[in-house]
Design a protein that fits this description.
Elements (H helix, E strand, L loop, with lengths): L1 H25 L4 H22 L5 H52 L5 H30 L4 E7 L2 E8 L4 H15 L3 E8 L2
Parallel strand pairs: 2-3
Antiparallel strand pairs: 1-2
Helix pairs in contact: 2-3, 3-4, 4-5
């Protein structure tokens, strides 16, 4: 019994290390500090421009330049927020599926459950893994068509796709729908375009 507890503890810690490693490797290197650096560079450029026009009152120019740099930095921040939105949605989807898999694994490992229920639970786990793989393949295919980013969420008979792109059209949406139907079969597909900023 003690050996099983130690094994479970060890496997839990190893999986935690793997998850954290993947998380840190996939996250961009401090995007917020890049935004601050951009702001500082813009302010320095703006201050130099103000110094060149030293004949006029500097207060009004500085206020105008600061207003411009503030609006420009908001655009950059919203771009980061857009990327964070995709990441947050992906993590939420992964969390939901991992919780469902854990519940199904508990059912499969339970001794009080019939063999058919164990089989159904294992089949459902396999379906979830297969669905996640297909979603990743579809995301890769969409990105290979020149789109900046894509998020595919399949749930039952519905597939929701969010694509980040500058330009969109009905023809592009139809192309994505046909691609999804080719991979997942006849499912109801909804495509949403999110503009890049």
């Amino acid at each position: 019994m003690l050996l099983k507890k130690q094994t479970v503890w060890l496997l839990t810690m190893l999986s935690l290390v793997v998850v954290l490693s993947v998380y840190y490797m996939t996250t961009p290197e401090s995007p917020q500090s890049n935004v601050a650096v951009v702001d500082q560079q813009e302010e320095n450029t703006n201050k130099e421009a103000v110094k060149e026009d030293a004949k006029e009152p500097a207060k009004e120019d500085t206020k105008k330049e600061n207003a411009k740099s503030t609006t420009e930095s908001k655009t950059t921040v919203s771009n980061v927020e857009s990327d964070e939105l995709f990441t947050a949605l992906r993590l939420e989807l992964i969390d939901e599926r991992s919780k469902l898999k854990e519940e199904l694994q508990e059912v499969a490992a339970s001794k009080n459950v019939s063999a058919t229920e164990v089989s159904k639970a294992m089949d459902k786990i396999d379906q979830l893994s297969e669905l996640a793989e297909k979603e990743a393949v579809i995301e890769t295919l969409i990105k290979s068509k020149g789109y900046e980013d894509a998020l595919v969420r399949a749930d039952g008979s519905e597939v929701n796709i969010t694509v980040k792109t500058e330009k969109h059209s009905k023809a592009k949406a139809n192309e994505i729908i046909q691609l999804v139907k080719k991979e997942l079969g006849q499912k109801e597909v909804a495509v949403e375009f999110q503009p890049t900023k």
